[in-house]
Amino acid sequence: MLLILAAYGLIIVGGICAAHLMIEQLNVDLRSTAAPLVDRLVMASLVVYVLLMALPFVPSVEIGLALILMLGADIVPIVYASTVLALSIAFVIGRLVPEQLLAAAFARLGLMRAAALVERLQPLDQEARIAFLVERLPGRFSPWLIRHRHWAIAIVLNIPGNNLVGGGGGIALAAGMTRLVSLPAFALAVALGTSPLPVAILVLAA
User: Fold this and answer.
1) How many CB atoms are closer than 10 A to CB 124?
2) What is the number of alpha carbons within 13 Å of residue 133 lying toward its C-beta?
3) pTM above the 0.70 mark?
């Protein structure tokens, strides 16, 4: 357990350091680069932003805000679209993870109940999985969360400190692994969940 907690802490610290390193690099490059090269640098920064946003435990919201602060409100729609794209990529990666591998990983970590649950869910389709989880999961709010999983995803993306549970990339990866949400439904939930901040910035900048 101590080794798992230590590894968890290192992952979080690594994600935060990666975000701050990119912000510092952008701040230097955008001020020192000639105007004709700025567009290329911005595009490269957006590509890096998408890649970092798709990774678990990276506080990529800070990177998005840094891009907006340095480049102005005009880039808000592009950053917003990049956010939806990045989280959708993480979701797809989660869907592609073989469930046998996921169960084996849980078992190796000593999480035998989680491994058994994955193995039990593996042959079930989406509707059967939902019915099984609603019936079996403990807690008063668990069935509600399963039934309203799309709203739950949208809400958790806006909770301060969600980096501790994986950040946007980790949440998207986990959502894909559950096989409880389709890609279009997930993309719509992400589009709604990540819209308040871009809308607020555009309204204030108008």
Assistant:
1) 14
2) 24
3) yes
